[in-house]
Design the sequence.
């Protein structure tokens, strides 16, 4: 399917503020970027680099005054998300090196504290994909999804205590549970076609059966329409923007995802 | 300055043919990609990766029949190319690690064979930028530039014998001469505003005074307008396309570079 | 100075247990490994890789029974640790790309929560080295160092509440405070000559004045003798060993660091 | 099997000379370094880094006078070299990204010029391992191996003309032939137990059936005993030492490889 996605953010800047943005999508195994537009107003020098997860990041100094970022992208993705019941657990000794860091605890995923709980949730499941599916189902049934919940970043342990969360929070808990079973798991920030209300989305991927698979506890079923902006161990690594100095928040933010015909590409 | 660049290539494919393309420009210290379009007809699965030089590469299988690639990009670059007479030579022990591989001989730059010649060309110059400038001047004065010369890839040593070459050939010889003086040098494939006749261009960069500087022996003077597609040790690393199996050549190829107003971005 | 360092660890393994060890030291700008021995008993297949921080990691499956690791190393380091009062803060836009990830909050360094506190601690200091020195002094004066304290991993915020910690804890708090001032900071695991009691040590580095400098709030003054095993954002990244499955602890552990003559190398 | 390997080199230095050495072996899938010694006389500052192929490189300035490097290593390797008749060709689209650069022509492997010849040599073979084996056999039968031949670096095309070569030359020709068939191939510099006369050795690896396999046209059959020092596209990438400035050669060089008992490790 072809999607056209646009994203607008405006900030009101009071002192020159360094930003690291992650708003340039990458073409990858799951998505092809056919066109892209990235507008910064007022225009300032931007330096782009690739972080250690392969994400394209833009570094700049936002000047005083209103500062607007607009991006749009035309992207082709598969109509379906791959799913594979029974995909086996990969032994630590057989994991690719690039995947190993996704086994470790990280800022918002205290995986070392979830061993017993993960064992209980996945009891009786085949090792691998089916365990992760059981975790996703457990999250959906247990942790209340509040799409318009707080923007405050909280960790998997905190989410598990308060029993509700935004998409990112459910993903963090899913990741922590996977890693406690020695299944590599990572956070994906991105867009989802048909999301209500439309905004940035976050889900998680687990590495089983020799590849990454998509999981999302916030949706009743896994349909197509996922477009990745960036990958990381958790939200500390993969932020739409990181900003340094006194905190600023967008005064305006809008995301739009629409289905288009191939002929309109 | 703002440029709008487009590139069209068509191939006539007789058996399914793997390609690795390098046609997705990166934003970097010298250029900002404000918008981009990348069209492949017929559409096939494409996998994009970053090579060890930081270039974005697209891997695909071209199917039988006409196969067309069209890209366009809107890019902002500096009005002037930085030049710095007197920028000093950087001792080997102080070079950044990422720069060291640009000291070694490579496929088309037999730098180990040019020591005496480079010493002669640069005699009396301050070590560093001024040496490279003397090499660029020597190339301009000595090696006949034939913009529509052969597409055959030849090495610096061969260019030095035959005394003429396309832009890539002059750059290869410049690179070999620099490296023989222990100055890191690399090839840049890209576009140049105002080039006559308009097509892909190649120039070289040398690392002196703690950064890369641009050199181009094919132009009378160094004006602004350089847009990089990719970087590498020589043309073996940085090809607009690499194609595997029986060779195919574009049946059609066109490059267009025009100056635009910021208001038209 | 030349040091001979040895490290012994024994585990009692009840089920085959995957390990990722970080016990192969790297030669670097600060240290030269002249000889090294790495013994694993019983011998099992080991696969070594470089993680994204440049550390050499060894992956293996420990078999059932006693499992012993012994390493020793002869290393040359500078007699003094470099210090540089007044080394200036580096603006975000001028930081090398490889340093940027050390600005972000991480598992044990919740830097986003320490902005006000860091501002207070460093009030009146020149931006850069002097700020970090003030943080180190504040840690030394404020957080009780308990070298034989708990092995439990706690975060900077928790350390700040309980007001005591092991070397790693003081470092985590120092790192969080630095990052909250937009100064990149990282954890170093390693050895320190003369440490009492002798065991593994941890300290931190901050990036100011264009390079990394060493800080250690657990010592009254900064003397020579620091040997790095690994670098990372915090203890989640840089562990002497990570072990998967039911937890096992060393039944025996010993570290020895002695000064030797160059003639004994 | 366990091997103890030592390597001595002495240079007579007349002006301070920058060197990049590649004499620190890496543990990897095929070998485990149990102990290692690396001595430089006189001792000078050394900076070690990892190149883009994963090799550990040592950068230093050799001072005027005799300059000696001695390394020794105790290494465990498999008793046999893996061989796998019938291991299939991997389609370009399925090759790991890290392998793709080994498809390109490089300094000493002009793979673009060997397509017809490779097709002829491998006619009738199954695609993949069997093709490479046919190339190895053809090299052994056709190109005269002169172990004490010239040190001059020549390319695959030149070797093919003169019909003789040192180990490195036969490997370069093998690599060029493989790549011309779209089989990734790379050069390995290292040691071989039992080599006569004993010195550094070079062989090549080809990527088929999803992994790298060893090939060596200089030996009658493929026995165990291969220890890798470094990997690269060809000898331009993987040099025991690169030296900058006026050329110097070792005044003394010695390599020793002996079989030891595990009890002597």
Sequence:
């Amino acid at each position: 399917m072809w999607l056209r996605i646009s994203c607008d953010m405006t900030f009101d800047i009071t002192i020159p503020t360094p930003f690291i943005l992650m708003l340039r999508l990458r073409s990858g195994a799951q998505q092809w970027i056919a066109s892209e537009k990235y507008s910064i107003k007022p225009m300032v020098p931007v330096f782009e680099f690739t972080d250690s997860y392969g994400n394209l990041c833009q570094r700049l100094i936002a000047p005083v005054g209103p500062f607007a970022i607009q991006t749009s992208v035309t992207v082709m993705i598969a109509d379906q998300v791959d799913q594979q019941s029974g995909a086996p657990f990969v032994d630590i000794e057989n994991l690719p090196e690039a995947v190993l860091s996704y086994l470790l605890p990280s800022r918002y995923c205290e995986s070392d504290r979830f061993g017993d709980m993960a064992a209980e949730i996945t009891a009786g499941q085949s090792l691998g994909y089916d365990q992760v599916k059981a975790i996703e189902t457990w999250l959906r049934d247990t942790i209340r999804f509040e799409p318009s919940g707080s923007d405050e970043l909280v960790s998997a342990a905190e989410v598990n205590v308060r029993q509700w969360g935004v998409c990112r929070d459910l993903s963090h808990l899913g990741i922590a549970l996977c890693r406690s079973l020695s299944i590599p798991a990572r956070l994906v920030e991105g867009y989802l076609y048909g999301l209500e209300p439309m905004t940035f989305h976050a889900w998680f991927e687990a590495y089983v059966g020799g590849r990454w698979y998509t999981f999302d506890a916030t949706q009743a079923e896994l349909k197509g329409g996922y477009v990745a902006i960036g990958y990381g161990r958790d939200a500390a690594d993969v932020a739409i923007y990181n900003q340094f100095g006194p905190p600023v928040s967008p005064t305006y933010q809008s995301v739009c995802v629409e289905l288009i015909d191939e002929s309109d590409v």
